[in-house]
C-alpha cells in the first residue's frame, strides 16, 4: 500500500464522520418538527462510529506502512472508547432531559450506537498486532507467536465485545417487553434489536482477529464466524421486513431502519469473510470482497431516497429516510476498512 492510498483510506472514515455530524446538525437545525429531534441526534451519533472506525483504519494502516509507534498503539483505541463513552453519555442525557417520546427513542438509540462504537473500538484494540495475521497465515504450525496477545488478553478482548452485545440484547428485550406501554418502547426496542445484531457481528470480527493473531484460528471457524455475521444480517433484514407489514406507519417505518442495520451487518461480514478466506489459503477473488460494503452502502442510499418520497405520504418515514443516509455512510466507511484488510493480507 502506497502512502497516498493509505491517506485516502484513513480520510474516508473522517469524511463520513463529518457527513454524519454535518447532516445530523442540519436536520436538527431545520425547524421544530418533533421528528427532527429524533433524526438529527441519531444521525450525528453515527459519526462516532466512523471515528472509531478511523481508529481501526489508522491502527492497521500504520502497521502496514511501518509508521506504527507506541503513542498510536494506545491513543487510537482510546480515541474509539472515548467516542463510545461520549456517545453513551449524550444518549443518556438526551432521553433524560425531556419526557417526550422523541427524546426517549432517540436517547435509547444513541446509547445503542455507543455500544456499536465500543465494539468497534475493541476491534481497533484487537488490531494492534495485525501484522501477525499474514505471518501466521503463511505458517503451518499453531504455535502462538511471542508478540501475540496472551490467552487472557485475547479472551478479555472477546469478552468485552460479547458483554457489550449481551447488554444490547438485554436492553432490547426490556424495551420490547414494554411495547404495550407506549409506541416509543416498540420503536426503540426494534431499533435496538438491529443494533444488537451489529454488536454480535462485531464479536465475530473481534474473535476472528484475536484468534488469528494468536494463531489459534481453526478450520471450522472459517465457517462459524462468517455464518454468525451473515445470520445477524439476515435476521435484521427479515425482522425489518416483518415490521414493515404493520398497518401503523409509525411502527412499520421502523422496519426500514432494521433493514439498514442488517445491511451494516453484511458490510461487517466482508471483513470476517475476507479474513476467513485468506487464512492459509489462496483466494483469487479476495480483492472483490470490498465490493460488498459498496453494494450495501448503495442499498442504504437507494432505500433512503425511496423513503424521502414516502415522507410525502406519511411523516413517519421522515426519521428512517435520514437515518438510512447515515447508515450508508457507515457502510462506505466499512469499505475502506475491508480494503485495508485486503491490502494488508494480500499474498500478491
From TrEMBL:
Name recorded for this polypeptide: DUF2776 domain-containing protein
UniProt-listed Pfam families: DUF2776 (PF10951)
Alphabetized UniProt keyword annotations: Membrane, Transmembrane, Transmembrane helix
Lineage: Bacteria, Pseudomonadati, Bacteroidota, Bacteroidia, Bacteroidales
Superkingdom per UniProt: Bacteria
InterPro entries linked: DUF2776
Segments crossing the lipid bilayer: 7-30, 42-62, 74-92, 104-124, 156-177, 183-210, 222-242, 254-279, 291-308, 320-341
